[in-house]
Structures are given as structure tokens and as C-alpha cells.
Amino acid sequence: MGFLSVLSYAHKLIEERMRSGEAAIDATAGNGVDTAFLARIAGPSGSVHAFDIQSQALEQTAARLEREQLAGPHIRLHLRSHAELEEAVPQEQHGHIAAVMFNLGYLPGQDHATITKPDSTLAALEATTRLLRRGGIITIVLYTGHPGGKAEAEAVEKWAAGLAQRFFQVLQVRFLNQKNDPPYLIAVEKRQSD
Predict the structure, then answer these.
(1) Cβ neighbours for 194, distance < 8 A, ≥ 6 positions apart
(2) Mean pLDDT by 10 residues, the chain (194 residues)
């Protein structure tokens, strides 16, 4: 049995921290894999907010939720930048989000020119540190093989490395001997106490 993929490892980290009835965010809905994953954990008493700037991504996400019988009013799909997630998430959920997932890059099977960018990604990441509950987690899967991917990954790494150790723990998971720019994971956990 081999190692988990970085996305599977991100899922495992979230499964260890998030409980049924809690709120979560998929900051980059894409084709809905992470939205569906979070919806299964949250259950009907929890909630999931999924963000994407591409309507076809949200259409694919909605179709996946329907197929997997996860759709419902507790799942909110937002056609807007993840940089705006703090305004979109209801005030009563601020400080109570259990998990936030980012898959950076482009929507598979669609226009590779439409990519996540450092400015909006860093704004979204900063906002999630305020939205997260203690013990909550942010997972960021970074893809560097496309134009702009390496610059975004460097910006995210710098941001994560600068988080105060007193309040956050930061983990990086990557395969060192794979070719062709394999994706890697940065996970940020908000400490239970100061």
C-alpha cells in the first residue's frame, strides 16, 4: 500500500478535526470533490460554503451534490472570488468554521488561462484565519506546473511561514522524488489555546 495522495491526506486531516453539524468552506469549488467531501462530514445539521468564479464549476459542483444525494439548503454555492468569502459567510459563523479547503490552480478540463492568483488567494487565506474556530484547519493543495503556479505557491509558503507559532501550526507534505511538478499540501491548524 502506497502513501496517500496529497488531496487524500488533506481529507484525512480534516476528518480528524471536523464533526457533524459544523460549518466548512470550499474556497475553490472546481468540480465539487471537496464540497461533497465536506458536505458528507457536515451532514444536514452542518453547513458548507463553496466558492468559485466560474459558473461551470458551480454547475459541476451542484450536479455532483445531486448525484451523491448531498444537496440541500445547508450547502451554499457562491459565484464569487474566494477573496470575498469573509463577507459571504454569515456573521454568526465567524470564528466557528471547522475546515477550509483550497485547491489552487485551474479547473480541470476547462480554460487553463483562468487560474487562482496570489493576491486573491492571500486575501482569502488571511480571512480564513479569522473565520476558523480553535482546532480548525485550512488545507491548501498547491499545483505548480502551470504558468503562475510557482509564484502563487511561493507567496502561499511565505504567508504560511509567517503565521505566529503561538496561534497556528503549519505542516507541509510533499513527494520529493516525483517529476513534473507534483502537487503538494500546506495545512494550517489554529491552536486550541494561546
Answers:
(1) 166, 167
(2) 86 97 96 97 97 93 97 95 96 97 76 72 96 97 80 93 96 87 93 78
